[in-house]
Amino acid sequence: MSNFKRRDFIKTTAAAGVGATLFAPNIVKGKDDRKVRIGFIGVGGRGRSHLRNILLRDDVIVPAICDIDPEAITKAQKMIKDAKQKAEAYTEGEFAYEKMLDRDDLDGVIISTPWLWHTRMAVAAMRKGKYAGVEVSAANTIEECWDLVETYEETKVPCMILENVCYRQDVMAVLQMVREGVFGELLHYRCGYLHDLRGVKFNGESGAEFGPGSHGEARWRTAHSLHRNGDLYPTHGVGPVALMADINKGNRFVSLTSTATKARGLNDYIVKKAGEDHPNAKLKWKLGDVVTTTVTTARGETIIITHDTNLPRPYSLGFRVQGTNGLTDFDYHTRRVFIEGTSKGHGWEEAKPYLEKYDHPLWKKYGEYAKGSGHGGMDFFVAHAFVESIKRKVNPPMDAYDAAAWSAITPLSEMSIANNGEPQSFPDFTRGRWMTRKNDFALNDEF
Fold it and tell me: Which residue in 57, 79, 53 sits closest to 65, CA to CA?
């Protein structure tokens, strides 16, 4: 039913003309101005999740896809055929995406590839005049962060970091509470990525293999844990917090310090799965099992970010927002609020009444259509924002400056840990414009 609802949503808004600019002229001259043309670079698990949501829209055509994995291409092509569309596949080598980007019938591309390709593909897309929607994190090094910003400034072609958690329903409700002053002046945040990924990092015959011959993210993601020590995946937590704290739009990240525990979780997992004699049991993993990063902002707030993916644990993003009037801890396993003068005594209140009262207008408007789109509905909103930004020819709600600032946490945390927790300064990717830019995230009635 959810799929039909989302299709009906597109048809209804088309007929009613929701918003004066809902169907702005298409970027590609001579094409149907009610159709956005989006290509896909990477159609593995995450890429096909985006593809599924995009194919449900009657206002989008998918003319081309790119991947070097034949199985991924086959699965994606079946989805496209079932949607009564036809796409050309680009599969010849790691740089096949460059040929796809030479097409003149693409308005934008969605990039869902291994991390090391994100920046170069986004930069290539912008240079070819295509909106770049890039999965997280958007960059691996400070140089890559600058590449995103400088390419956007040079080409004026937008780049959107596809951070779906920014659209999670409880996250957006808390954003409303922040904007309406429920917590008073904000002082402190906590967030992170606390997710047992051992089963993602390893598979194969023994359950302890990675790299060539394995499948899924084990082919590429696990190597980062072997060679790098830092917060390797910060944006699910820090993206929502950055929007609440007006980062790049009235505020900015100033510095961070990071520390890491010893690395034991992956060795222990391999031994339990395959025994002490398995070759991978002898590896020395660089990534500390728990990485803790503290960020300071220009307005004097602090943000604690935790990265924890190598140990047995339930999933959590560890959100906390705290101000002069109170605070909230909110996640799937704990949703609670304390507001001075409202909450009784010094006890916590259930967050549910607050989350319902401050449910964001976008969720009130589109929540039913978002059901079944993935990750509790937030995947609908992030895809919708990307498509609508292209239609309207406007900068997306999470732009190249956000992609750079949020992603910079990874290399800066690596540098801090390598230097015994020494503070690291954030570049000002906006070159001072953070002081005058306005935070308009989710203030538009459409995205």
Answer: 79
